[in-house]
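User: Some background: our group keeps a shared notebook of sequences we're curious about, and every so often someone picks one and asks for a predicted structure to add to the entry. Today it's my turn. The entry only has the sequence so far, pasted here. Could you supply the structure so I can complete it?
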Amino acid sequence: MALPDHLAGAGLRGVAPHLPLPPKLLREMSANNMITVQGKQLRLRLFPREPHGIPADWMDLNILYEDDFSLVVNKPAGVEIHPSVKGQRGTLANAVAAYYETTGQAVKVRPMHRLDKDTTGPVLFAKNEFAQAVFERALRDKEVDREYIAIAEGVMQKNKDKIDLPIGQDRGHSTRRRVSETGESALTYYNVDERFRDHTLVRLTLGTGRTHQIRVHLSAIGHPIAGDGMYGGGRRYIQRQALHGEKLSWAHPWTGDKQSVRAPLPDDMIWAINELRKGR
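Assistant: Of course. Here's the predicted structure to add to the notebook entry:
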């Protein structure tokens, strides 16, 4: 990569092209004396002390994985990942700030992706700018894999299929999405796991990451998610959309080793599945 004169003068011209760092981050690290060359050794200061960047609110957290680069938290239902309006508190990001504070970690809170408020499952946080840059690139390149499980209404006939329908904003509802010819391309893959009398347990992966994608796609093919009132799901068995992020896989930002976590099904989905099995 081309470097500014001050970076070339610091002896980085020969090693910079081999660093997995975006040019902007490389410039910032050099300007803050976080990257130096000493003979044949390259020294990176990847873990500077930082403010959390968000007020701390205590909440019991189910931590699925943690190292010096990343944190993965199992998000409960009813909690937003980060504030959506100024001054909002009680989000998962606020709780992670409290966790960092109580464990003595001077780390900025950096959630890397979203889950809807009432969707449960693992959320990945980056612990430094380097990890954030690597994760952002991996998300753009679809190298972070997320697998979901949902209870869909009706009996799905195909054992597996893909839903390839564009999604746009519903002009009549500020937060609702809908299938629209003028929307953004959206691709969802599903595999049927178990069929009940009038519901289907289905596992899903995403080819794209549109807002409400799984909820919109399943509703569009006539199988809304149980409990998802916004998209046509009834609440006989569960009071929120029965959608759970079951597995998250990513490459370690430094070593490149494949890592993954599984989040256990929440109690309300376990209860609903058991009730559906009784009604076969």
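Suggested note for the entry: The chain has three domains: 5-44, 49-141, 146-245+272-278. The helical segments are 5-8, 23-31, 92-102, 129-140, 213-220, 267-278.
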